[in-house]
Amino acid sequence: MRAWEVRRPGPIGTGPLRSVERPVPRPGPGEVRVRVLACGVCRTDLHLAEGDLAPRRPGTVPGHEVVGVVEERGAGALRFAVGDRIGIAWLRGTCGRCRWCRSGRENLCPGAVFTGWDADGGYAEHAIVPDTYAYRLPPGLGDAEVAPLLCAGIVGYRALRRAELPPGGRLGIYGFGASAHVVAQVAIAQGAVVHVLTRSERARALALELGAASAGAADAAPPEPLDSAVLFAPAGELVPVALRALDRGGTLAVAGIHLSDVPRLVYADELFREKQLRSVTANTRADGDEFLRLAGALGVRPTVSVRPLAEADRVLADLAADRITGAAVLVP
């Protein structure tokens, strides 16, 4: 099968991805193999390729927003039938025994493993997943449309919950890529007033098209104080900017797996009056199930740019250069 692997992490211009031919994998006990129909391109894939996210194994196939059709089941994998369309997401396995797993916080499991980091992902024609960590997908969405929901959507939804947006509240979104443009749709559909702050003029235009109340530069002040904010851009210098934009008692959630260094915070300006700063770590399967049901009910529709799998290296280069509006999706 055709696949892409991270050959040698480094700047995307140095060619860290390599196109290879591999044998079609066989599922083990409790696993299913899917024929990949689409795989969303996530900024985490770029972090892995460039080395911001340290590789956990050599030659990993990136990609963790995978839509595929079950074509073979391993022993005991009875949750899905051959021919079912399912989704493969970032969280791939947890121990099920630690205090985090037992308390419904499996995203914090010290033994958690992840698709496209600990195991091969969806930048390939076939992929393997434990069936207990795969998702049933909402009807009515095409393969390319549903793919970004499997990480950009799920993890973005967890970030929105971590930001504790009150009903009808004022939400600031910093950065407006794949995850942010999905979260904006959810928040607006639920009655929030959304202000988008991003450096991309094309992303600002998309934000307004999707119903944002305003769209300005990333370091600008929103037109009103915010109840909550989510930082999607991997830019630590925006943390104090977003904290200053919060109203009293507001919460900022940082959604990325990688963030550049945060500058010194001035307590009186940026944290006083019970403002909160929170991080977001992956997601639980319950988050994924809840979000996918909600996305189907609210009619969330990602803006996607479909590209052939053969162009995976160029797509990551476009992502690094902010040439992608919405989400990019690879199709074998």
TrEMBL record:
One of its GO terms (cellular component) is cytoplasm. GO terms for molecular function: alcohol dehydrogenase (NAD+) activity; zinc ion binding. Residues 1-25 are annotated as: Disordered. Its EC number is 1.1.1.1. Keywords: Metal-binding, NAD, Oxidoreductase, Zinc. The keyword Zinc applies. InterPro entries: ADH-like_N (IPR013154), ADH_Zn_CS (IPR002328), ADH_Zn_typ-2 (IPR014187), ER (IPR020843), GroES-like_sf (IPR011032), NAD(P)-bd_dom_sf (IPR036291). Its cofactor is Zn(2+). Transmembrane segments: none annotated. It catalyses: a primary alcohol + NAD(+) = an aldehyde + NADH + H(+); a secondary alcohol + NAD(+) = a ketone + NADH + H(+). Signal peptide: none annotated. It holds the Pfam family ADH_N. Residues 13-330 form the Enoyl reductase (ER) domain. The keyword Cytoplasm does not apply. Belongs to the zinc-containing alcohol dehydrogenase family. NCBIfam families: adh_fam_2 (TIGR02822). This is Probable alcohol dehydrogenase AdhA. It comes from Pseudonocardia hydrocarbonoxydans. The lineage of its organism: Bacteria, Bacillati, Actinomycetota, Actinomycetes, Pseudonocardiales. The gene is adh_2.
